[in-house]
UniProtKB/TrEMBL annotation:
Any Pfam family matching the protein: Pyr_redox_3
Gene Ontology terms for molecular function: flavin adenine dinucleotide binding; monooxygenase activity
Name of the molecule in the record: Flavin-containing monooxygenase
Superkingdom in the source lineage: Bacteria
C-alpha cells in the first residue's frame, strides 16, 4: 500500500471519528464531496439503503443516532489510482462489527460502504467457537448425532414451530437457511420438489450456468478448485442436495404452501401447507419468499391460442428439444432462455424459429468473464488476493447511481473487441442494444431482470441461419402457425413462450392476498426510469433482502452471487429480531408500483 494513500485515509477516518465523538452529524457529512454516497448494508440503518449527497448523509446519521455510528474505525489497507484513494476499514457500533470500503477524491469521500459482518452479542460458532461434537466422560447421553438429527426432523414444524419459514428451496432459500442455521435461528425451508436441487434437475437437458464458478459459490462452502467453470444443471442440483445435508438444514421436500395470513396482534403468520399429501399449519414469526428474483411466469394472451393444434408452454416448463425432433418450433422471445431453448432444439434436430419482439443485449461469455467479471471473479483475481467475499464487498461498494459509469467503459471495450461478432448478428436482422445508456448487461439485469443473453453459442447459430430469426409482434395463432402483425406466417408444430416472469410480489398475491402484494409493491428494479424500470429513483433494489411495507414479510433471491452475499444481511436482520434487539428501520422504502 502507498504510504501517502494510507496516511490520507487514516487522516480522513480520524476526522470522521472526531466528528462522531463530538456527536456532530453535520461535521461528519462535511467530510463528503459534492457528489457523494454512503451505502449501508444493515449496519447503521437496519435496512439496505444508500444516502446520496451530503444532505441525505447528514439526515441519515442524525436519524439513526450515535449508537449506530461507526466507531473503533481502523484502516486496514489503502491504494491510490487516478486520483482516487480506496481504503478498507473495520468498525464497531452498538449492534455490529463491520467492514467497509471508502473512495476518497481530493480529500473528501466520494463513496463509502458500511456492511454488517456480525452481531456483537451473537457471534457465529466458527473457529474457536465451534461445537465440540462429542461428549467425553462417564455420564454421557445415549443419543448420538444421528439420533438428534432424526428427532429434530420428526418434531420441527410439528411440535416446535420455526421462527422463520422460507418458501422456496432453491439456491437462495438453501443459502439463507445455512446463514440462519449458523446464527441459531430456527428456520424451515419448504419446497414442492421431491429433492433439494430438483429446481435445476428439472430444467431442459442442455442447461448449464451462464455465470462462472468464481461468481457462484454458496455461503461457507465454496466449490472445490477443480469445479468446472460453468456448472451443468444436474451437477448443481446434486451440490445443493448435498449442501442441504452437510449444513444440517431443516428442509421439507414435497411441500407446497397453500395460503398465508398475518396476525397483526400476535405478530405471527399462519401458513397452510400440504406435505406429502397431508395438510399442516405452520405459525412462523417471519415469512421469506425465496423464489428467485422472478414472479409467476408471464404468458401472453393471444387470439387463436385455443385453436392452435400443437404444444404450447412457457420456457420454465420446456421439456427439452428431443421431443421436437423434425418439428418446427416458434420460440417467442430473444433473451437467455429463448437462446438456450433454440440451441437445444437445433441440437436435437428440430427447426427453431426465434421471434424477436424487441432489441436484446448480447455479450459473449468469454468477453464477459475477461473484461467485466475477471478483475473480481477469476483465477487472476484470486492470485491478486481477491477472494469471492472480498469481491462481493468491492462490487457492493459501488452505489447503483454511479454503477453505469463503472460498467460503461468495459462494455465499450467489448463492443469494439467483438465488432465482427455483432456485425454478423445485425446482418441477420437481429436487433441489438447495450442498454438504455450503453451500460451493458448487469444494469439491464438490475433494472428489469431481462433483455439480455450471455452468448455460449446460440448467437453463432443465428448468424449462420441454423436458428431462423423473425422480427415483429404476434397478431394471432392459427391451427398450424403463428401469424405476425405484418402478415408473416410462421408455420409451427409447437410454440414456446420465453416471455419472462412477473414481479416477485406476484407470489405474495397468490399465497397471501392481492392486498398484501400491492402493499409491498413491485420487487426488483431501481427506479431508473428506463424501459420496464419506472421511476422514481429508489437507490436500491425494490424490496430485496430488507424490510418491506408488510411487517415480517421478506423477499430473497437474485443470482447465485447476490443470494450468497445479501443472505448475510437478511440473516443478521432476522437474528436480531429473534434475540429481541431494537431494530429501528431507517428509510423504509415507499411503494410506488404494484406490478
Amino acid at each position: 500500500m502507498g504510504d501517502a494513500a494510507l496516511q490520507g485515509a487514516r487522516q480522513w477516518f480520524a476526522d470522521l471519528d472526531a466528528a462522531f465523538a463530538a456527536e456532530d452529524a453535520a461535521r461528519a457529512a462535511s467530510l463528503f464531496g459534492d457528489e457523494s454516497y454512503w451505502r449501508d448494508l444493515a449496519s447503521l440503518t437496519w435496512n439496505i439503503h444508500t444516502a446520496e449527497g451530503r444532505g441525505e448523509i447528514e439526515a441519515m446519521l442524525a436519524a439513526v443516532g450515535p449508537d449506530a455510528w461507526p466507531r473503533e474505525l481502523e484502516v486496514t489497507s489503502a491504494t491510490e489510482n487516478d486520483g482516487v484513494t480506496e481504503a478498507w476499514y473495520t468498525f464497531r457500533n452498538k449492534a455490529f462489527h463491520g467492514k467497509g470500503l471508502v473512495r476518497l477524491r481530493d480529500g473528501k469521500a466520494w463513496t463509502l460502504l458500511s456492511s454488517a459482518q456480525g452481531l456483537n452479542e451473537f457471534p457465529e460458532p466458527s473457529g474457536p467457537r465451534r461445537e465440540r461434537g462429542a461428549e467425553h466422560g462417564v455420564n454421557v447421553s445415549t443419543e448420538n448425532w444421528l439420533d438428534r438429527r432424526n428427532s429434530r426432523a420428526g418434531s420441527f414444524g410439528i411440535d416446535e414451530q420455526p421462527y422463520v419459514l422460507v418458501v422456496g428451496g432453491g439456491q437462495g432459500g438453501i443459502g439463507l437457511a445455512a446463514r440462519l442455521k449458523r446464527l441459531g435461528v430456527p428456520a424451515l425451508v419448504i419446497d414442492k420438489h421431491p429433492r433439494p436441487g430438483d429446481q435445476w434437475r428439472s430444467r431442459y437437458h442442455s442447461l448449464c450456468l451462464h455465470d462462472p464458478v468464481w461468481y457462484d459459490h454458496m455461503p461457507y462452502l465454496p466449490f472445490p478448485d477443480h469445479w468446472p467453470v460453468f456448472t451443468p444443471k444436474d451437477k448443481m442440483g446434486d451440490w445443493l442436495e448435498h449442501y442441504t445435508k452437510i449444513m444440517e438444514l431443516d428442509y421439507w421436500s414435497n411441500t407446497e404452501a397453500q395460503s398465508a395470513s398475518f396476525d397483526d396482534d400476535a405478530e405471527q403468520w399462519t401458513v397452510r401447507v400440504v406435505r406429502d399429501g397431508r395438510e399442516l399449519t405452520l405459525t412462523p414469526t417471519h415469512l421469506v419468499m425465496a423464489t428467485g428474483m422472478s414472479g409467476i411466469p408471464s404468458i401472453p394472451k393471444l387470439e387463436g391460442q385455443d385453436v392452435f393444434g400443437g404444444d404450447q408452454h412457457h420456457s420454465s416448463k420446456h421439456p427439452g428439444g428431443a421431443k421436437y425432433a423434425g418439428k418446427k418450433v416458434v420460440v417467442v422471445g430473444s433473451n437467455n432462455s429463448a437462446h438456450d431453448i433454440c440451441a437445444d432444439l437445433w441440437q436435437n434436430g428440430a427447426e427453431p424459429i426465434m421471434l424477436q419482439r424487441s432489441s436484446t443485449h448480447i455479450v459473449k461469455s468469454d468477453s464477459l468473464m475477461e473484461v467485466v467479471l475477471g478483475p473480481l471473479y477469476s483465477e487472476e483475481a484470486l492470485a491478486n488476493g481477491i477472494d469471492h467475499e472480498t469481491a462481493d464487498l468491492i462490487f457492493a461498494s459501488i452505489p447503483y447511481k454511479v454503477l453505469p459509469d463503472f460498467q460503461r467503459p468495459a462494455f465499450d471495450e467489448i463492443r469494439e473487441r467483438d465488432k465482427d461478432f455483432y456485425d454478423s448478428l445485425e446482418q441477420t436482422g437481429f436487433q441489438l442494444d447495450f442498454g438504455d445508456d450503453d451500460s451493458g448487461l448487469f444494469l439491464k439485469y438490475l433494472r428489469r431482470g431481462s433483455g439480455y443473453y450471455i452468448n455460449i453459442g446460440a448467437s453463432e447459430l443465428i448468424a449462420k441461419g441454423a436458428i431462423r430469426l423473425a422480427n415483429g409482434q404476434i397478431d394471432r395463432l392459427e391451427e398450424d402457425a403463428v401469424v405476425l402483425e405484418d402478415g408473416t406466417r410462421l408455420e409451427a408444430d409447437a410454440v414456446v413462450y420465453a416471455t419472462g416472469y412477473g414481479s416477485m410480489n406476484g407470489w405474495a398475491a397468490k399465497l397471501i392476498s392481492q392486498e398484501v402484494a400491492d402493499k409491498v409493491g413491485k420487487c426488483w428494479g431501481l427506479g431508473s426510469d428506463t424501459v420496464r424500470d419506472p421511476g422514481p429513483w429508489q437507490g436500491e433494489l425494490r424490496n430485496m433482502w430488507k424490510p418491506t411495507q408488510q411487517e415480517n414479510l421478506w423477499f430473497h433471491g437474485g443470482n447465485l452471487h447476490q443470494s450468497r452475499h445479501y443472505s448475510k444481511y437478511l440473516a443478521l436482520q432476522l437474528k436480531a429480531r429473534l434475540e429481541g434487539l431494537e431494530t429501528p428501520v431507517y428509510a423504509l422504502a415507499e411503494t410506488h408500483h404494484t406490478r
